[in-house]
Design brief:
- By secondary structure, the chain is of the alpha+beta class.
- About 20% of the residues lie in helices and about 35% in strands.
- The chain has 3 helices and 11 strands; from the N terminus they run αβββββαββββββα.
- The strands form 2 sheets. The protein has a 6-stranded mixed β-sheet.
- The model has no long low-confidence stretch (mean pLDDT about 85).
- Pfam families: CheW.
- This is CheW-like domain-containing protein.
- InterPro entries: CheW-like_dom_sf, CheW-lke_dom.
Amino acid sequence: MSPAAGDLADRLGPLRSAFDRSFMDPPRPSGEAGDHLLAVGVGARRCAIRLAETAGLFADRPVTALPGPLPGLLGVATFRGVVVPVYGLASVLGDPPDPDPRWLVLAAGTPALALAFGRLDGHLRLPADALVRYPPDADRPRCLNGMARLPDRTLGVLDLRAIRAEIHALAGHPEGS
């Protein structure tokens, strides 16, 4: 064996041992603690949506308009071969409609629902202590379930389940259908 090969074997032994020991150590935290959110602009309002409550984010998706009396119903769009109703998020929140709602977020869960808004401000990954959840019995702003504290501002965190329930109530559907 050449001197270089012997030196390499001497260095590989400790590396193999460290690699093998790493499987016996308890898992280390991944640094992913907290929540992932989308920071969005809805009309004049700035808020956040938990990524865990979404099934997709789409830009400039065509929406086929539908006539009807439901406030905020913009029409329907197709997602992965499924026709989904699209509501203007600003209208659902009681604000004037967004003039150009180019972004669509597909809410997780059933029935399928997409919400349109005008501005995507970015992705946020916040530690757990930067998110404040409202207690279930708290008198809170409608369709919000907490606040996200950022260094320069605070964002209301939208509750997509509450928004879906509100849309169902507006449409006259019984709860759970």
